[in-house]
């Protein structure tokens, strides 16, 4: 697979603050990378260096094999940044047209309004849009040049449920067309739904890098729990295939193992007498908190 972005030992130091600390990572063409981590971790700074908006203090950033501030690179990027200000006294459609004029082969107005869900807002003054609609406008502007590489920095903050749905549907469609996407978000359900790969950043460093599944499995919190309806010894429970650990309190049992399907198969196969069976899957939020506190 071809790398679209390469970061090699990249650091960014502001006066007395190391915002990004020796970060190295590659983003493959056509993949969705989610950068996650607490506020102040260095996600936005990393995105800005990928965009060529901020220069690294040390290390190298390459986008499409070139420096990100080259014009030929910039023409293929689109970005939705955290802070966006809308231009006073211009209508939504006028702002979109202005951005379209920056590119050689922009998407049509109709396409951009549909992709961002702003069909009803073309003639509204941008300042009159709701917070969520302003985020959608920012999305439309990011897509104006039909970019191959798209950056989305906390894109859904301020969007309501239906805006989010339109937004992620469009992002999925872009992914299906082979676009490369880098996003940051605090919503782990969004990461689980869309990311091919997750990099967890804390204090400017990468502390975990893998698929959602790989990151979740590091916490080993998958289990099935149930209540025994007859006597079963702890030895028997411990020896069941796929069981890594048994927690037991009288007839209340929790079996831990990486694969909950296998755990269910095992307890059925061995005719364990039980009721109130429950599957407990580790979630990404748990994994994130655990990895951050361990780093
Ligand atoms: N222009 C700047 N000048 C000084 N410090 C900055 C600047 N931009 C970001 N920082 C600091 O760098 C750290 C990382 O910030 P940022 O990349 O915005 O984190 P995140 O996006 O993960 O919340 C924070 O401590 C922040 O205060
Ligand atoms: Mg940020």
Automatic annotation (TrEMBL):
It comes from the Bacteria. Signal peptide: none annotated. Residues 5-228 form the ABC transporter domain. Keywords: ATP-binding, Nucleotide-binding, Transport. SMART domains: AAA (SM00382). InterPro entries: AAA+_ATPase, ABC_transporter-like_ATP-bd, ABC_transporter-like_CS, ABC_transporter_ATP-binding, P-loop_NTPase. GO terms for molecular function: ATP binding; ATP hydrolysis activity. Pfam families: ABC_tran. Transmembrane segments: none annotated. The keyword ATP-binding applies. The keyword Chaperone does not apply. PANTHER family: ABC TRANSPORTER ATP-BINDING PROTEIN. This is ABC transporter ATP-binding protein. It comes from Paenibacillus albiflavus.
């Amino acid at each position: 697979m071809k790398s679209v972005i390469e970061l090699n030992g990249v650091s960014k130091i502001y006066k007395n603050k190391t915002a990004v600390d020796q970060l190295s990572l590659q983003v493959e063409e056509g993949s969705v990378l989610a950068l996650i981590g607490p506020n102040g971790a260095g996600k936005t700074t990393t995105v800005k260096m990928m965009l060529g908006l901020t220069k690294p203090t040390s290390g190298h950033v390459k986008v499409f094999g070139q420096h990100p501030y080259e014009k030929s690179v910039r023409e293929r990027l689109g970005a939705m940044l955290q802070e966006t200000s809308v231009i006073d006294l211009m209508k939504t459609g006028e702002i979109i047209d202005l951005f379209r004029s920056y590119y050689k082969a922009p998407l049509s107005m109709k396409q951009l309004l549909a992709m961002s869900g702003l069909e009803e807002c073309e003639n509204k003054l941008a300042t009159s849009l709701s917070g969520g609609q302003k985020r959608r406008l920012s999305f439309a502007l990011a897509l104006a040049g039909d970019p191959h590489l798209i950056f989305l920095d906390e894109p859904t903050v301020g969007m309501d449920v239906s805006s989010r749905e339109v937004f992620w549907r469009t992002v999925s469609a872009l992914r299906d067309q082979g676009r490369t996407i880098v996003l940051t978000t605090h919503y782990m359900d969004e990461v689980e739904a869309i990311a091919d790969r997750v990099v967890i950043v804390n204090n400017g460093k990468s502390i975990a890098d893998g698929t959602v599944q790989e990151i979740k499995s590091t916490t080993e919190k998958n289990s099935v729990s149930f209540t025994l309806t007859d006597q079963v010894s702890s030895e028997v429970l411990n020896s069941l295939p796929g069981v890594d650990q048994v927690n037991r309190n009288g007839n209340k049992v929790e079996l831990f193992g990486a694969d909950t399907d296998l755990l269910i198969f095992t307890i059925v196969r061995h005719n364990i007498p039980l009721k109130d069976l429950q599957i407990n899957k580790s979630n990404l939020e748990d994994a994130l908190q655990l990895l951050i506190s361990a780093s």
